[in-house]
Model the fold of this input.
Amino acid sequence: MRIAPLEADQVDKKLQRVYESLEKQYGTALNPLRVLAHKPVIMEAVMRLYGAIHAPNEVLSEELKEMLSVRIAQINGCRSYCVPYHSYMLRHLGTPEDKIQAIAQGSLSPHFSEMERLCLEYAERITVPTTSVSEEFFGKLKAHFSPEDIVELTAFIGMLNFWTKVIDAMEVPLDDIFKAPQGD
Done:
């Protein structure tokens, strides 16, 4: 850990309320946000964007977003926090273990629907520096998604790339709650 996460007694009252809200929602104040609390304006901005890209969407489900999160984390090497955290979230959502394990195969896995494979490929094309999003591929996205969903999907993928890089660079430790055996 390069920068220690701040405890509730180390932040102002406003951030203490944020910590309380996170603890109610996740069971912990989340170490990555506790690290960003060193710069509250950044923490608050990130949380607003995070909230926006996690607003309910019938087309882009939370399960799909968590699968994309795992894939982006795998590509970016965020294995000590991001992969276990998002795998935990998938299990919490009821995703079968074989499907979670298949994420490492990405868009090539037969475990996913056509739409899921398309989204995984889009995440891979944005995340892997040697790939790109061609006009032909973007046309495939347009055939399946509205402009609003494409904007949300793209912002989501960009945000997850941000998180994997920040967490990895600062060596943010995994919250203990996500290390617990799965029994839900």
About this structure: The chain has a mean pLDDT of 95. The first helix runs from residue 13 to 26.
